[in-house]
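Re-run with default settings, no changes from the original entry. Doing this only to confirm the output is reproducible before filing.
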Amino acid sequence: MTNYVLLDPEEHKTMKVITDRSADYGDNIKYAMTFPFEFRSIQSCYPIFFQKDADSGTFFPLALFGFENDENLFLSDDGWNATYVPTMVTRQPFLIGFQQDQENPEMKHAMVSIDLDNPRVNEASGEALFQEHGGATEFLTRATQNLELIHQAHEHSRRFVEALIENDLLESFSLDIVLNDGSNNQLLGFYTINEDSVQQLGASVLGSLNEQGFLQPIFMVLASHSRIRDLIDLKNATIETSDSDQDQQA
């Protein structure tokens, strides 16, 4: 459950946010939404796929962290073991909310909201949101800039996905993985970009995609497929560690 409220300098002046990465703070997630602007950084660590929203029927790109629900193979007792953490992860516990203009009901102003029920939010430890004598801290300023970037990225991502669909580049994707212990893992319900279809695109289409800033993200998605091997290696290492711990306890 979430409990988002508009951030208020007076009401929340003593509030702090823990920035450690842990399952206790909700980081044990299988995937997170991502955006084309960060695909270059994402593909250096994670596979990029697409998923279809069950309610709206729209597609969105995601960075994959594991094979099972509540599994983040990059998470350990030491934190998040990757050189880049997606913006939709780092933005927690903040969200952009909208407040209606009192003079013009048709207008809404973007405001920073915070989830009071998020385990990161407290008054004892972590990064302060407001300075002692007023004003946002550097941490809150960076968080606000991050939210603004996400807000703008949604529209670009929407147009990117529309271009993929228009050019028939998205296809359903499934993968059966046999681990070192003989167990099977499956990736189902995801979509990816068909590399053969990309190679068959004409010069005019490629030029149009490039002008819109979509060509590089396409190549970043394709390049990210090599990270599936990294996920498999991490999963095997997790199983081996678990087996070793059980042997020691026995």
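The chain has a mean pLDDT of 91. The CA atoms of residues 198 and 209 lie 11 Å apart.
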